[in-house]
């Protein structure tokens, strides 16, 4: 067999091709492959809370300087808000410039609302609570509630508090810190087993999608989907590319370095699937583990760049398709509301439609029933959302690390240039212990 097919990247690419072929030639059988993709994602999510806890606690407790940890967190949040606002504005601008909904002339009375019934209640919960309710949900009922529910933000809060307290204990806390580090190593070893199943997960996810919706399933709203993909590409290569260039690095080289993870995200439409190995690869790049441990998990809820583009682009699209005029005030309202609702996306079942519904609930002039229009192609848009969110968080980590001086620039350039040839594959990365 060719060498490329023995690598995880080659196997994932092969799984993508086989999944598409299975969906095309045996669609009925392929549509039953969904559990393969779902099972892979569940295995990953099972380990993510423990990994986040161990990495963050070890990073903070080992750093010693809690003021610096606080500076990293504050600067990361500032970066998130600025870039998210740019993404939201870009979505509105592209929708107005290209008008993907113009000419559809949809009569809202002809749309079937039954398809949205499962999302309405969740959307109401998201929109009715507001910012205060969202912040209250960050606090778990008990210290282990976040682990049981798989809520990364709740685990992150507990980990930050635990890490700060452990750092303050000093020498007496060293044995406990060593145990947490060992627990992290064991969990990463388990992850190395799971990551090897990525080709199977990708095959199942792609086969199900093509088998159920068909290769030509983008035709109905192909313009919207295509425009969304182009917008994400524009955001990644122009906006993120410029930001990363300002920090002294190349977006193309970073993409090459993360090519295996990018292929898995594209195949599973989930950035959760590569969170642990991405953290390890960013540490291998020369970024301190304390910074990686803070920025990446936080970014998964506060830095959803592609999701933000989706919210504003889809909202304006629905208004255009239903011939609903939007004033400048409406556009500002969409921007402001989406800036808040997008923060609650991670971990919400059917998050895209739910959060979009919650956003539209605050803009009465746009008929919420228009959500039916984008529901059928949500999976395909979800691939671009996952890719954009993932790359946005990787860039954020490099930029924030550069901002606070937590990156070895010489090592990072050598790794990205391929001069350091021992850059680990995901399965190898997962098995390596964290470096302080």
Topology of this protein?
Elements: H1 3-6, H2 8-25, H3 27-30, H4 34-63, H5 66-98, H6 117-137, H7 145-149, H8 152-169, H9 174-195, H10 198-213, H11 222-246, H12 251-257, H13 259-268, H14 275-284, H15 289-302, H16 305-321, H17 328-341, H18 351-361, H19 371-375, H20 378-404, H21 409-416, H22 426-429
Helix pairs in contact: 2-10, 2-13, 4-8, 4-9, 4-10, 4-15, 5-15, 5-16, 5-17, 5-20, 6-18, 8-15, 10-13, 11-16, 11-20, 13-20, 14-15, 15-20, 16-17, 16-18, 16-20, 17-18
Family: Belongs to the dicarboxylate/amino acid:cation symporter (DAACS) (TC 2.A.23) family.
GO biological process, one term: L-aspartate transmembrane transport
Membrane topology: Multi-pass membrane protein
What does this protein look like?
With 436 residues, the protein is mainly α. It is 74% helix and 0% strand. The longest helix is centred in the N-terminal third of the chain and has 33 residues, at 66-98. It is globular, with a radius of gyration of 22 Å. The chain starts with a helix and ends in a 7-residue tail after the last helix. The model is unreliable at 426-436 (pLDDT under 50).
Strand tally: 0
Classify the secondary structure makeup into a structural class: mainly alpha
Order of helices and strands: HHHHHHHHHHHHHHHHHHHHHH
- Architecture, CATH level 2? Orthogonal Bundle
- CATH third-level topology: Proton glutamate symport protein
Q: Report the sheet with the most strands, covering strand number, pairing sense and barrel closure.
A: none
Radius of gyration: 22 Å
Distance between the termini: 39 Å
- CATH homologous superfamily grouping: Sodium:dicarboxylate symporter
- Compute the number of structural domains: 1
CATH top level class name = Mainly Alpha
Helix content: over 70%
């Amino acid at each position: 067999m060719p060498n490329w097919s023995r690598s995880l990247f080659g196997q994932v690419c092969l799984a993508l091709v086989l999944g598409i072929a299975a969906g095309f030639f045996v669609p009925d059988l392929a549509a039953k492959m969904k559990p393969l993709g779902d099972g892979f994602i569940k295995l990953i999510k099972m380990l993510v809370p423990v990994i986040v806890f161990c990495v963050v606690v070890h990073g903070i407790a080992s750093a010693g300087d809690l003021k610096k940890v606080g500076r990293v967190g504050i600067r990361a949040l500032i970066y998130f808000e600025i870039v998210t606002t740019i993404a939201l504005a870009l979505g509105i601008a592209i929708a107005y410039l290209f008008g993907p909904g113009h000419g559809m002339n949809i009569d809202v009375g002809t749309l079937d609302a039954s398809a949205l019934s499962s999302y309405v209640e969740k959307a109401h919960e998201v929109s009715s609570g507001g910012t205060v309710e969202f912040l209250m949900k960050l606090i778990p009922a008990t210290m282990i509630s976040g682990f049981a529910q798989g809520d990364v933000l709740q685990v992150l809060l507990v980990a930050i508090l635990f890490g700060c307290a452990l750092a303050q204990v000093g020498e007496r806390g060293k044995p406990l810190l060593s145990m947490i580090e060992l627990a992290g190593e064991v969990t990463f070893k388990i992850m190395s087993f799971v990551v090897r199943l990525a080709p199977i997960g990708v095959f199942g996810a792609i086969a199900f999608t093509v088998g159920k919706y068909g290769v030509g399933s983008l035709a109905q709203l192909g313009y919207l989907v295509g425009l969304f993909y182009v917008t994400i590409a524009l955001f990644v290569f122009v906006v993120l590319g410029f930001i990363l260039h300002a920090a002294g690095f190349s977006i193309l080289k970073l993409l090459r370095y993360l090519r295996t993870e990018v292929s898995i995200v594209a195949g599973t439409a989930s950035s959760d699937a590569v969170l642990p190995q991405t953290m390890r690869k960013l540490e291998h790049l020369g970024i301190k583990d304390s910074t990686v441990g803070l920025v990446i998990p936080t970014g998964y809820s506060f830095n959803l760049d592609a999701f933000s583009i989706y919210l504003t682009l889809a909202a304006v699209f629905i208004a255009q398709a239903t011939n609903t005029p939007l004033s400048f005030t409406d556009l500002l309202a969409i921007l402001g509301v989406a800036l808040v609702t997008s923060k609650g996306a991670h971990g919400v079942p059917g998050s895209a439609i739910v959060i979009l519904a919650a956003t539209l609930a605050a803009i009465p002039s746009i008929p919420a029933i228009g959500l039916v229009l984008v529901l059928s192609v949500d999976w395909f848009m979800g691939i671009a959302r996952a890719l954009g969110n993932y790359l946005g968080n990787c860039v954020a980590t490099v930029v924030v690390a550069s901002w606070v001086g937590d990156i070895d620039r010489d090592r990072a350039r050598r790794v990205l240039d391929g001069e350091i040839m021992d850059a680990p594959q995901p399965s190898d990365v997962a098995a390596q212990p964290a470096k302080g």
